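May I ask for an example protein's residues together with how it folds?

___
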Amino acid sequence: MNFTSFKKPALAMAVIGVLASASAQANDLVISPDLGAPSFTVDVSGTSKDVVATLFTVSDQTTGSSFLAFCYELLQNIGAAAYVPPGLPYTAGSVVSAATQALFNQSYASIDLGNQAQVAGFQIALWETLDDSNRNSGAYTNWLGDTGSAVEANALAVADDLLAKVRSGAPNTGDYQLTAWNNATSQDLIQAAPRGNQVPEPSSALLGMLGLGSLVALRRRSN
C-alpha cells in the first residue's frame, strides 16, 4: 500500500468550544490499531481520499498506562515512529469542538467497542463533527465503503444515526472529559474518560485485543 501525508485542513481545526480540562504535557505514545478495521473513500473538498476507521490502543510510555483513542483529524498520517517504542511525543490539549463533545456525551456509552461497524461508525461521525456533522454536506462528502461489505454499510448507517443526534441535540447518556493528544507531524488523537465514573472504563482484555497490531500505517492510497 502507498501511504501519504496530508495537510490538516483549516476547517477541521476550527475550534467551536473549549471543553475538557487536561493539563498540557508531553508524553511518548505508542499507537496500535485494529488491523481488520474497515476502510472508506471520502471526498474532501472535491478530492477523493481513502481512510481507515478504527479505534486505537495507546500505550503511554511516559506513565506506563494504556488507554483507547480515536483519530481526531481526517487527513494527517500517523508517523511511523508512533508504532514502536519509545513512540512519539504527544501533548495533551484541552480544546475540542462542541459537536465532538456532544457526540461523546450522547452516544459513546452505547457503542460496543468490540463491534467494528459501531466503532467505525463512531469514528466517521467523529470526523464529521470537525466539519458540519452531516455526511452529505460540507467539506467531507460521498462516504463509500471500499469493499462494499456489510460492516462498512452498517458503519455508515451508525454514523448517520449518531450525527442526527448531534444535530438534533439529543439527550446525553454520559459525561466525558475529552483529551486531545496533539503532534505536529502525526495524526492527532482523542481520549474519553467518564466524569465521576458513571460509565465503566473499557476492560483490560479489550485493550489487549485492540493492541495486537502495532506495525501498520493507517492512511492508504490517495488519488
Remarks:
- The beta strands are 26-32, 39-44, 47-52, 56-60, 65-71, 88-93, 140-145, 176-183, 186-194, 219-222.
- The chain has a mean pLDDT of 83.
